[in-house]
Design a protein that fits this description.
There is one protein chain. With 612 residues, the chain is of the alpha/beta class. The protein has 24 helices and 16 strands. Helix content is 43%, strand content 13%. The strands form 4 sheets. Strands 5-11-10-14-12-13 form a 6-stranded mixed beta sheet. It has a 4-stranded mixed beta sheet with strand order 2-1-3-4, with helices on one face. Strands 8-7-6-9 form a 4-stranded parallel beta sheet, sandwiched between helices. The C terminus is likely disordered.
């Protein structure tokens, strides 16, 4: 029987003793042992030539690595705001009750663990959970009871009802992207015939911009990488950012499921144009269930001569191939430099720029990073031509945009709209009859009230990563913003003091308002905190964490006014009320009242009977 030391050696050897594959090594070992003990981490460090503190520092950074023992069934409920509104907390408490799980203690610790995760990417079919990293959607009380019974019976997941694990795509409106049925390799052949320079010009003419929210011109990014010098023994790299961690966003999940071949073609097209040797799909851990399907799509491309060492060298230079790498639960890794750090086996801390990834990216090599939707759109732009691509959208924002709609509407799911479409048109399409608030682009994005529903999606007005969270008049907008602050406090990478501390200060300030201790001073301090974070935070996450609070204070003052009970500063902690329960338990309530009477008398009179 193999010891832990033997198994660690075997796994590290499988990954060729490369420190940059540390996350993959930890994933493999956790799959085997369920959690990563100090013994495992120390042995990994010894095999890779890394200090224990380095390995522990990486493992502790990512929320999906377990550094404490977990049960055979590890259940994580989605803690996204839309899942909360659909009852995720209620169902989590129900499962705990069914399994006699209390905070920090369970009679079945070896059998089951129950916790939360920020967002599963199943907002269109929540509330949802992950059990051993496999999603179950559409939770209800009956299903929770059945889950509890299966866990108590120790039934392996393959014996659970398989329809529970079905993830729906919920595509309600298609456009040129979702309707595309291009022959595999078609864009590669066209680009080869016209040459890389002309292909870049075509992309430039199509005005394709990144679909991740920032909207950087795709042709400019690819050309910069193509022109960047490559040192001896190195090559250029193509990375697909499939770490779709923005709460309320799930469009890339649908593309990975429905259009995997189109994505791979887009990455290969980029490799052909810039001259890349290899690429990665950085897949968020919540989408781990999609990995076998993506591996099958890669294998099919290889067998068709469109990928890998046996590919047609005319279409696929240098034997370009793609590897899937799993993230491990870190929202900040959606930022391209943090993602690259993670791919290199490190903590996902955003880099200082410049240098930019196009000149100094993965392992110091020129690197293109785009998201799933952008790579798919690049194929359409080359295969169908710039004019066809620009026939949708506006002069500034060409093409279409996939929108992930969730929340208070009758038809949550995926919609493909031309840029320039108004928010009100999207709300009508998804059946949001009584929308009061729309959060666009996730917590870091833009909060709209009803007066702004005439605004339009597009880089000239409402740039968006594709998330539309809809809230009707029954929702308290303050509570929505408060949940976002909790999310930011949890997801801060901790690298810089302003964000690490400021995110918790903001969260505590919102909690203070919720408890009835709020004052006008607190609102002023939140504004001052925002200015500080914008000027001093290391990356965009810290700069944006106050945005949903300031947006909602300005646009939904009615949800804040009842919470502002004081004009001047009021402490968040009431010592007297906190001690009241202790006084009752010790039967000192009457004695305390008596002492207060004596104190009052002594203050108001001196020994001579004169009033002080």
């Amino acid at each position: 029987m193999k010891t832990i030391k033997d198994k660690v050696k075997e796994v590290v050897h499988h990954h060729k003793h490369k420190p940059e594959r540390l996350l993959e090594i930890l994933h493999d070992l956790q799959d085997k042992y369920l959690w990563l003990s100090s013994e495992i981490l120390a042995q990994v460090g010894e095999e890779l030539g890394l200090p224990y503190t380095k390995v522990y520092g990486v493992a502790s950074f990512y929320s999906f690595f377990n550094l404490k023992p977990v049960g055979q069934f590890n259940v994580l409920f989605s803690d996204n705001i839309t899942d909360r509104h659909q009852g995720s907390i209620h169902y989590a408490n129900q499962l705990k009750k069914e399994l006699w799980v209390e905070e920090g203690h369970s009679p079945f610790d070896d059998l089951v663990s129950i916790g939360t995760t920020s967002c599963t990417g199943m907002c269109d079919q929540g509330p949802a959970l992950l059990v051993n990293q496999i999603p179950i959607t559409h939770l209800n009380s009956e299903r929770i009871r059945e889950i509890a019974q299966l866990i108590l019976a120790k039934k392996p997941l393959h014996e659970w009802p398989q329809d529970w694990f079905k993830v729906e795509n919920n595509i309600h409106r298609k456009g040129p992207l979702l309707n595309s049925e291009l022959e595999p390799g078609s864009s590669l052949r066209i680009a080869k015939l016209m040459g890389a320079t002309t292909a870049l010009e075509l992309l430039s003419q199509s005005q394709l911009r990144g679909r991740g929210g920032a909207g950087f011109p795709t042709a400019t990014k690819w050309e910069s990488c193509r022109n960047a010098p490559v040192h001896k023994g190195q090559g250029r790299v193509i990375i697909c950012n499939a770490d779709e961690g923005e709460p309320g966003t799930f469009k890339d999940r649908v593309l990975l499921d429905q259009k995997a071949d189109l994505l791979i073609e887009g990455m290969t097209l980029a490799a052909q144009i810039v001259g890349a040797k290899y690429g990665f799909i950085y897949l968020r851990n919540e989408y781990k269930y999609l990995k076998p399907k993506l591996e099958a799509a890669l294998a099919q491309r290889r067998s068709a001569g469109l990928l890998g060492l046996k590919a047609n060298p005319e279409l696929v230079p240098d034997g370009f191939d793609i590897e899937i790498r799993l993230g491990a639960g870190a929202y900040v890794c959606g930022e391209e430099t943090a993602l690259i750090e993670s791919l290199e086996g490190k903590r996902g801390t955003p880099r200082i720029r410049p240098p930019f990834p196009v000149t100094f990216g993965y392992l110091g090599q020129p690197t293109v990073v785009n998201n799933v939707e952008t790579f798919c759109c690049s194929v359409l732009a080359v295969a169908n031509g710039a004019d066809s691509f620009k026939s949708f959208g506006t002069q500034t924002s060409s093409g279409t945009k996939l929108i992930s709609v969730s929340g208070d509407c009758t038809r949550p799911g995926i919609y493909e709209f031309s840029f320039g479409t108004s928010v009100s048109e999207i709300l009508t399409a998804c059946g949001a009859q009584n929308a009061n608030c729309v959060q666009i682009g996730g917590p870091c994005g833009i909060t709209l009230n009803t007066e702004e529903f005439n605004r339009r999606i597009g880089f000239e007005d409402l740039p968006t990563a594709g998330s539309f969270m809809v809230f009707d008049k029954t929702r308290n907008v303050f509570e929505i913003a408060r949940q976002f602050t909790h999310f930011f406090a949890h997801e801060s990478c901790g690298f810089c003091t302003p964000c690490r501390v400021g995110s918790h200060i903001l969260s505590d300030s919102m909690n203070k308002l919720a408890k009835g201790y709020g004052s006008k001073i607190d609102l002023k301090e939140i504004q001052e905190l925002s200015h500080l974070l914008q000027k001093s935070s290391h990356c965009g996450l810290g700069q944006a964490i106050c945005k949903p609070v300031l947006d909602t204070i300005h646009k939904f003052p009615g949800d804040y006014h009842p919470l502002i009970k004081h004009d001047e500063f009021n402490p968040a902690f009431d010592l007297d009320s906190s001690l009241s329960q202790a006084r009752q338990l010790t039967h000192r309530q009457d004695e305390n009242a008596h002492l207060e009477q004596l104190n009052s008398f002594s203050v108001s009179h001196n020994k001579s009977g004169e009033t002080i």
